[in-house]
Structure formats: structure tokens, C-alpha cells
Design a protein that fits this description.
By secondary structure, the protein is mainly alpha-helical. A hairpin with a 6-residue loop joins strand 1 and strand 2. The strands form two sheets. Strands 1-2 form a two-stranded antiparallel ribbon. A two-stranded antiparallel sheet has the order 3-4. The protein is 48% helix and 11% strand.
Length: 132
């Protein structure tokens, strides 16, 4: 996962990114008509209108894919916040409190084995001062 969020939320975030990028390209394309006018401005605007439309279609595809995936995933209760969350795959994060969760018993204590995050340093035992 790229961000520290639930996988389903990350898919939705990428869909939002592509939608805003597509709309931004379309708005940028209208600058061709404003600044150049004539045929050159229309070609510039048309090119960016097509590119923006393609990004909007990609966004619709991502949202559709995330929605279809959301209907078929497991809904479990988060052990930390006790709220219902959706889990995609063997490992995921809670949609509410971002707690790492897994269904695989082998990965239950070693989350660094399947994510790009560095392993947490082992807790060093604090020296206990002698009792007098």
C-alpha cells in the first residue's frame, strides 16, 4: 500500500485523483481558446478535452472496480476500535483507526514481512534500579 489507509479507501483516492486531473486538463485546455483563439486554440482545447475525458473514464473505471470489490469483501470487526471495517486480501488496515490487521496467522506478529514499512525496533528492556 502506498498510503497508510485501508486498501478500499486507497482505490477510491486514486479514482478521485484521476477525476480531478481529468477535469484540470479540460480546464487547462480552454486556455488555448482564451489565449490563442482561432484554429490553434481549438486544436489545443480539443486535445486537452480528449485527454481529460480519457482520465475521467479511467476514474469511472476505478470507482466501478472499487465499488464491485467493496460488495464482495469480508466485513470484520476491528480489534482496536470495535467498528465494522472491510478487509481486502490477507492484510489490510482498519478504515477508521488505521490499525494493521491480518487473517494470516503466520503474519500476525510480523507486519514488516508484507509491507514496505521498516520493521519496528525491538523494545529494549529498561534497566530496573536495584531496590534498597
Amino acid at each position: 500500500m502506498f498510503f497508510k489507509t485501508a486498501k478500499i479507501n486507497e482505490f477510491r483516492l486514486w479514482g478521485l485523483f484521476f477525476m480531478l486531473a481529468g477535469m484540470g486538463l479540460m480546464i487547462f485546455g480552454t486556455a488555448g481558446i482564451v489565449f490563442w483563439g482561432g484554429l490553434a486554440g481549438k486544436i489545443f482545447a480539443g486535445t486537452f478535452m480528449v485527454l481529460g475525458s480519457i482520465l475521467l473514464l479511467v476514474s469511472c473505471g476505478i470507482y466501478f472496480w472499487a465499488g464491485m470489490m467493496s460488495t464482495s469483501v469480508k466485513t470484520i470487526e476491528c480489534p482496536s476500535c470495535l467498528k465494522q471495517t472491510k478487509m481486502i486480501g490477507k492484510t489490510d488496515r482498519c478504515m477508521h483507526c488505521k490499525t494493521k490487521m491480518t487473517m494470516d496467522e503466520q503474519l500476525a506478529n510480523d507486519f514488516s514481512a508484507y509491507e514496505d514499512e521498516p520493521a519496528a525496533p525491538a523494545a529494549k528492556a529498561a534497566a530496573v534500579p536495584p531496590q534498597a
